[in-house]
Amino acid sequence: MGMHSIVLGFDFGLRKIGVAIGQPITKTATPLPLLKAENGVPHWQHIQDIIDEWGVKALIVGLPLNMDQTEQPITQKAKQFGESLKKQFGLPVFFVDERLTTIAAKADIHEVITSKKRFAPADGHSARLIVESWLAQEK
User: Fold this and answer.
1) CA-to-CA distance for 117 and 119, rounded, in angstroms?
2) Domain membership flag for residue 1
3) Is residue 32 assigned to a domain?
4) Distance separating alpha carbons of residues 134 and 115, to the nearest angstrom
5) Which pLDDT tens digit goes with each residue over 47-102?
6) Which of 11, 12, 38, 65 is the S-S candidate for 78 at Cβ 3.0 to 4.6 Å?
7) Cβ(89)–Cβ(76) under 8 Å?
């Protein structure tokens, strides 16, 4: 992984998967449109297109854990998703503990939007935070 390698982060969900592109030089990430998924399986070609377009070199998957670090049923599925990504694209896959990022995302969005729909856009935003927390840890 070079200093300048673009990374692609995922906020896994069964029906929608948030995605964001990370720029290691600036340590920032940009949310992309949500991917639709069927029971956690996205349209792989769509991800391939993003990888090709941006020259992605590594993939980051947020792992949803409970606050006491125990796994939720979705945690296993997120891990399987990461394994599928490895097989599909042959790129390194890194997992990030998502507990704090999702809370941060929802708090941020809560401040921006106070309507009933406020959690709808959290996905791409969570993916951005997943990538940024990984970039911050990367030496």
Assistant:
1) 6
2) no
3) yes
4) 30
5) 999 999 999 999 999 987 777 777 778 889 999 999 999 999 999 999 988 766 55
6) 12
7) no
